[in-house]
Amino acid sequence: MRTAYVAVYGTLADWEIGHLLVELRTGRFTGEPWQVVTVGESTEPVVTMGGMRIVPDVAIGDVEPENGDLLVLAGSAEWDAGGGDAWVKLADQFLQAKVPVAAICGATAGLARGGLLDERKHTSAAREYLQATGYRGTANYLDERAVVDGDLITAGPDAPVQFARAVMQRFGLADERKLDAYEGVFHRGDPAAYPILVG
Hints:
Layout: E1 3-7, H1 14-26, E2 35-40, E3 46-47, E4 53-54, E5 58-59, E6 70-73, H2 77-80, H3 85-96, E7 101-104, H4 106-113, H5 127-131, E8 146-149, E9 152-155, H6 160-170, H7 176-188, H8 194-198
Parallel strand pairs: 1-2, 1-6, 2-5, 6-7, 7-9
Antiparallel strand pairs: 3-4, 8-9
């Protein structure tokens, strides 16, 4: 069973990674359930932006990239306050080990500050949002809902469904027809897409 490490920290933006985590954990449309492991800076509880209290399964110091298949980083107020250095360091370790990292919203700003987007195609909330970090990757910014560049998956805060789709695509968990149906059901509300998704 593959493992997704999910970083959890105060004011984590629950909704941004909800679609992705459900699809990975259940495998309901892919036929391949994953183990989802929450990671905190310690094992002390954190409270998400939506008020959910999460007790991390493991602490960041116990995570080795080679023991997982994916690192997931959600947005949070901490990123915009200039925090998240420990997570940027972990993301760098994952990318260097050629283990994918999926970052959405504020997490992309953290990766930008850490130099991890300078040489990789990426997206975020807006080009200007990342430019404010002073990063050098503007030429690699794509104005798309989600972007996959090798082992890096990025998305903006308005694209949780496309974020999930991009991760599933990166891992080959479903073909393009089913991925399009997934977006059809959960983003466009297209009833004609449902039979394709569950078929």
